[in-house]
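Revision sheet: structure tokens.
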Amino acid sequence: MRLRVRFSKLGKIRWTSHRDVARMWERAFRRTALPLAYTQGFSPRPKVSFGLALPTGHESVAEYLDLELAAEKAGEVDISSLPARLSLALPAGIDVQAVSVIDDRAGSLQEEVTSCTWLVEAASVSPAELSGLVERALAADSLVITRQRKGRDVTDDVRSAIVSLEASATEPVLLCELATQPRGLRPSELLTAMAPDLEEAAVRRLHQWIQRDGASREEPLPLPLDATGAPHAWERAS
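Predicted:
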């Protein structure tokens, strides 16, 4: 049986790396005695796979992982109790929002997620200045940045990776949807593309999206409206 877990990462825990968060989950699985399935071979590992890595220092109300339960014990697990049980076994700031059974044939989160929605607060810029940069970015035919890939500097046109972009009229905050495929665009890279000296003050991932063959997009594991704890309208991302 495959399960998908949706969780948030808020507060001071945002400074914990993706690798260390994975270790926290391993400890939580042991504490809750969850009967995970394991790989075969010389060094068996639990069948757990994480979604897109969240940059260290960013918050999120839409993180995901998939896991597989051992077939012989899967029927003994009360799925409805898992959000509360796992949350208690995890550090403060990581809270499980939902757990659901998924099709064994479902693709991996790394392959399926096509874009993410972000709330980005920019540093040292006024709302009016930021709105002007947004207008210029949306009107541009190309937005070129230089970033590292496999140890080399590579120049990329990232304009097509901006699915949507808007600025608050009252705060230096952006609401944007950025593509993750074929090459993902991070919020920090978006700001660099808009202006080389533009920097992040606070960032929160609000959604991850899957879109297949032109169909309506969907979340890997949706929640009821307003259940994510995401800021409403243009509340600050900090």
